[in-house]
Specification:
Elements (H helix, E strand, L loop, with lengths): L1 E6 L6 H13 L4 E3 L12 H9 E8 L1 H4 L2 H12 L3 E6 L10 H4 L4 E2 L10 H17 L2 H19 L10 H16 L6 H64 L5 H14 L3 H12 L9
Helix pairs in contact: 7-9, 8-9, 9-10, 9-11, 10-11
């Protein structure tokens, strides 16, 4: 991407544009200037279209030759259709009626002040370049975003609306704010730009819904696993109690021949750990023993 595309007539403006490009470059501006000779009958070159698309601003050098050039006219139409910031600069005196209406309605930066003394022409040129840089730098973030949306929407369209080229996250949020501001101010927004932002938001909404659905499924699965784990733990405790109860019941039966009290206590303890057949039998056995066997001699 470049900061500025310069449209000019190679027939008369080359020396001026060379000087202007050098001055802009010295001020940190990246300039795109076509250096090859193209006749009006030549095919419109894709690289020129792409250069205008990727430039943040479009400078039209006004001269009698440039306003009469079909080539310059085509470049101006391209910039206008893309909604580019257009900055006309007057390089030489040109009849107003010959200037395209898209330029005539804009404020010119003039580099043709005849009232400036010859010895001061260099200083005046530099001052005008400073003014031009100031114009090019105004609202620069919005211009950069506009250019990114132009290039991204162009790539998206060329690649059959590939979903991987949709906007995401902060870039999408910034694009939506820019789109709202453009619409509120009545500025040109291309249909492809609008569609790119709209489809990006739809895709983002679908992803969010999918994420929520996935999170819900995971939460339900985790809850089910937790319930299953509790059930398993409860079953393990129950089996452990049953095993202990059976062991106590066995000890109760073994104690029957020597101590009925011990037999009964073990039977009760076994029954407390699980209402098993063995525990019940131990209790019944202890209850059926003669009472005198429980008393000391």
């Amino acid at each position: 991407m470049s900061d500025v595309f310069i449209s000019y007539s190679r027939q008369s403006d080359t020396e001026f544009v060379d000087r202007l490009s050098a001055a802009l470059g010295a001020r940190g501006q990246e300039v795109w200037v076509d250096r090859s000779g193209i006749f009006p009958s030549s095919p419109w070159r894709p690289e020129i279209e792409q250069a205008i698309l990727e430039a943040h601003s479009f400078v039209f050098v006004i001269s009698p030759s440039s306003v009469a050039s079909d080539y310059c006219r085509a470049e101006l139409d391209r910039a206008t259709n893309l909604g580019k910031r257009i900055v006309p600069i007057l390089a030489s005196v040109t009849p107003l009626e010959s200037i395209p209406s898209e330029l005539a309605s804009l404020h010119f930066l003039s580099f043709t002040d005849d009232q400036v003394p010859a010895q001061d022409e260099g200083d005046e040129f530099e001052r005008q370049v400073d003014r031009l840089v100031e114009v090019l730098s105004t609202d620069i973030e919005s211009l950069h975003l506009q250019t990114r949306l132009l290039t991204q929407s162009s790539r998206w369209t060329e690649h059959n609306e590939d979903r991987s080229l949709l906007l995401r996250g902060r870039e999408l949020d910034a694009a939506e704010r820019w789109l709202d501001a453009q619409n509120a101010q009545g500025r040109l927004v291309l249909p492809d730009q609008q569609r790119l932002v709209r489809e990006s938001r739809r895709a983002s909404t679908r992803r969010q819904r999918g994420s929520i659905g996935t999170a819900s499924v995971i939460a339900i699965a985790m809850a089910l696993l937790a319930v299953f784990a509790l059930i398993q733990r409860g079953e393990a405790v129950r089996q452990s109690n049953f095993s202990l109860g059976r062991a106590l019941a066995a000890e109760s039966v073994a104690a029957a021949s020597s101590n009925v009290t011990t037999q009964g206590l073990l039977g009760l303890e076994a029954y407390g750990h699980g209402e098993t057949i063995q525990a019940r039998s131990a209790l019944i056995g202890a209850a059926e023993e003669p009472l005198e066997r429980t008393l000391p001699p």
